[in-house]
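Query structure, 747 tokens:
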């Protein structure tokens, strides 16, 4: 209120000076009467104005001083509480954290604003010129505001009476920086004044090149793109230095109305805007006549960048690993570039193997009925969009005819397809005309089969045993269904998959693989009186047996009696060293009653391949960040180093490794034996099944002519419950492992 009164006094002073210029020293009552209105004083001045022009010039200095005081008052009133513009000295906008595969293909982006910051020296002249032409042609001439643009905006606002609503801009590039970064974007005159004041301050502090760099890295260019580098990548799949004049003009046309110009239906309007910018770029010398002719002849053509690799569980694991070391806000704004250990081929093979395995297992379940009923083919598209993302092509369709051995259905494209019904799965399935069902297009064929979404979950991890590099990871059937990663987050009982470590403890303690162990019934009574009565999976006993056969054929009684001979202490020490259990454990732990993550047990399994050295899994091989190298160094040390430790002797590892190979040749994993010869690989591994068939496991390795892979497969319900009668690891998890081998080596 004080400032407003001060401005009013100054305006009165202007009128008094004008009157004195006309009438001399005497002054009418209107100017001395404190109750006289501003209008009365103005009218009195106008009545007595005629003919006294000479005195106007005499008193002009009084008027100019009054106007100057008015301007100073306005600057004080609106500038006193403005933000500190010095923050722009070190200003770094939020940038995108990008996750890449080992082949440098983009997997995922994390950002508040999707942006890549580019230095001024790396910005091509045609891009700088296009935006200067489109936004502020006198950028290198003015000192923060453009007087012609300001006058034009004032006239437009006066004619349209938009001062109190949404006044027109006339803003320079500097004013846009002031608005977007410091002042805010309220649609009123007060903001425009504050914006202009701040623009003067910015121009006084920063060079024109620095101002333009901030602007071109900060501005919004539609479709979630911030800054020119991100827009070049998104719209044209190009780096900034590859952009052509017509593409630069296209980008420069967007900021004035992003939501309008980037829509396909508005391409004629965008074409006019783009070509106008191109002609002005020629007029101002940014492009040649030849470039102009070529550019205006080009159609509007947006070539979106290639789709990201689909590896949501992998990128989400990277995200959670980062959050152990830096705040979430820093991850989303910090602009990290993460090169992961993921292999594009192996990731695809692993994900496909898991999907196919869970789908096949679901065929043994009860048919849950149609997906929907009485829908038109036009409505099928909406249903398809609701389905989770999978590698397999899953389609909704409408039943048109029901036959004994097949269904005739129609897809959303009005295409008629035949779905063959099989006696081997979904035996109780019943169908009616107009049922909406789901079908699966079989790979490399035009054959469709009945499909229903799996109710079980599962996962698969593939690791390089030498470096610990995670080459592929899928932590569930679909990330759209559940983002919970059952391979890295779920703690489950491994069942018999833990037995190799029990036998390793025995070998370390001096036992020989051909020692005789009794496979006989046993009852263990605990101090509280409860009894533990283990048994073999087939309820048989085998009497005197070789120690190695206990592992190859996964015999529980052999294992328990072996532990009673050597004692729990060496077993506990081995499991603790492998990171699979704590200090205290019951005797049932040797049969896999302890809880651990699939990732942990796979890491421990690497000791059998690495001559006793257990490697630490790593998901990233390199991390870069130009803005915070200190934080980057900490992350690289924590996440990118190859680490290993010895948990058993080379001799023990070699003995167990041979036993696990015989498990594939003769034992519980013998269904894999034929794949060794078929694909010229060496396979070893161990099945695992928990009580009541709640969880099914297979952990093994594949060695070809050049590389060894460790693969861990897990299948179970999100909340542990039985998978069904006789759902052993060899029946449920092992086929997924076999799928992976076929996907990797089938030519």
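Result returned for the query:
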């Amino acid at each position: 209120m004080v400032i407003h009164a001060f401005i009013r006094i100054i305006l009165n002073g202007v009128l008094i000076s004008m009157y004195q210029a006309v009438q001399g020293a005497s002054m009418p009552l209107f100017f001395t009467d404190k109750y006289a209105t501003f209008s009365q004083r103005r009218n009195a001045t106008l009545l007595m104005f005629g003919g006294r022009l000479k005195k106007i010039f005499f008193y002009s200095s009084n008027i100019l001083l009054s106007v100057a005081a008015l301007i100073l008052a306005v600057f004080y009133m609106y500038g006193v509480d403005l933000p500190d513009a010095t923050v722009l000295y070190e200003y770094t906008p939020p940038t995108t954290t990008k996750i890449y595969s080992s082949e440098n293909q983009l997997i995922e982006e994390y950002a508040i604003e999707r942006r890549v910051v580019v230095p001024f020296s790396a910005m091509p002249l045609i891009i700088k010129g296009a935006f200067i032409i489109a936004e502020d042609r006198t950028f290198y001439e003015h000192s923060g505001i453009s007087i012609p643009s300001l006058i034009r905006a004032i006239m437009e606002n006066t004619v349209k009476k938009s001062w109190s609503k949404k006044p027109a801009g006339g803003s320079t590039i500097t004013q846009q920086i002031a608005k977007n970064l410091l002042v805010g974007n309220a649609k009123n005159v007060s903001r425009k004044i504050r914006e202009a004041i701040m623009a003067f301050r910015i121009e006084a502090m920063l060079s024109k090149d620095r101002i333009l760099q901030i602007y071109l890295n900060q501005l919004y260019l539609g479709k979630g793109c911030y800054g020119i580098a991100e827009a070049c990548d998104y719209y044209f799949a190009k780096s900034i230095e590859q952009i052509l004049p017509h593409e630069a003009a296209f980008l420069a046309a967007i900021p004035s109305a992003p939501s309008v110009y980037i829509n396909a239906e508005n391409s004629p309007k965008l074409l006019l805007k783009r070509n106008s910018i191109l002609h002005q770029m020629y007029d101002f010398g940014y492009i040649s006549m030849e470039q102009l002719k070529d550019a205006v002849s080009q159609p509007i053509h947006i070539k979106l960048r290639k789709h990201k690799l689909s590896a949501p569980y992998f990128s989400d694991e990277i995200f959670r690993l980062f959050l152990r070391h830096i705040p979430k806000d820093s991850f989303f704004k910090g602009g990290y570039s993460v090169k992961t250990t993921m292999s594009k081929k192996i990731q695809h093979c692993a994900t496909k193997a898991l999907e196919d395995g869970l789908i096949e297992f679901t065929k043994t379940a009860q048919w849950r009925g149609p997906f929907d009923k009485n829908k038109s083919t036009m409505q099928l598209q909406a249903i398809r969009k609701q389905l989770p993302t999978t590698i397999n092509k899953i389609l909704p369709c409408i039943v048109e005819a029901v036959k004994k051995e097949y269904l005739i259905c129609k897809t959303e494209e009005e295409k008629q397809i035949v779905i063959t019904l099989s006696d081997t799965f979904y035996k109780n399935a019943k169908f009616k005309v107009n049922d909406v069902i789901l079908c699966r297009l079989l790979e490399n064929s035009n054959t469709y089969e009945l499909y229903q979404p799996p109710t079980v979950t599962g996962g698969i991890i593939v690791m390089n045993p030498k470096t610990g590099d995670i080459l592929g990871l899928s932590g569930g059937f679909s990330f759209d269904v559940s983002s919970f990663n059952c391979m890295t987050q779920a703690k489950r009982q491994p069942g018999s998959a833990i037995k190799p470590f029990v036998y390793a403890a025995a070998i370390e303690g001096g036992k020989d693989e051909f020692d005789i162990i009794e496979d006989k019934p046993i009852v263990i009574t605990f101090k509280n009186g409860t009894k533990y009565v283990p048994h073999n999976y087939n309820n048989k006993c085998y009497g005197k047996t070789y120690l190695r056969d206990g592992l190859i054929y996964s015999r529980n009684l052999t294992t328990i009696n072996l532990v009673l001979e050597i004692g729990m202490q060496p077993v506990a020490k081995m499991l603790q060293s492998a990171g699979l259990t704590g200090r205290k454990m019951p005797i049932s732990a040797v049969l896999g009653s302890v809880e651990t993550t699939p990732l942990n047990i796979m890491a421990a399994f690497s000791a059998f391949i690495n001559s006793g050295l257990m490697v630490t899994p790593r998901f990233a091989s390199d991390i870069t960040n130009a803005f915070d190298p200190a934080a980057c160094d900490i992350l690289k040390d924590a996440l990118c180093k190859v680490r290993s430790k010895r948990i058993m002797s080379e001799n023990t590892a070699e003995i167990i490794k041979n036993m696990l190979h015989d498990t594939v040749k003769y034992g519980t994993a013998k269904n894999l034996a034929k794949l060794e010869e078929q694909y010229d690989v060496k396979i070893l591994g161990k099945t695992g099944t928990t009580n009541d068939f709640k969880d099914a496991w297979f952990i093994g390795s594949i060695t070809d002519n050049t590389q060894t892979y460790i693969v861990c497969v897990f299948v179970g319900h999100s909340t542990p419950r039985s998978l069904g009668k006789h759902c052993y690891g060899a029946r449920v998890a092992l086929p997924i492992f076999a799928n992976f081998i076929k996907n990797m080596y089938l030519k």
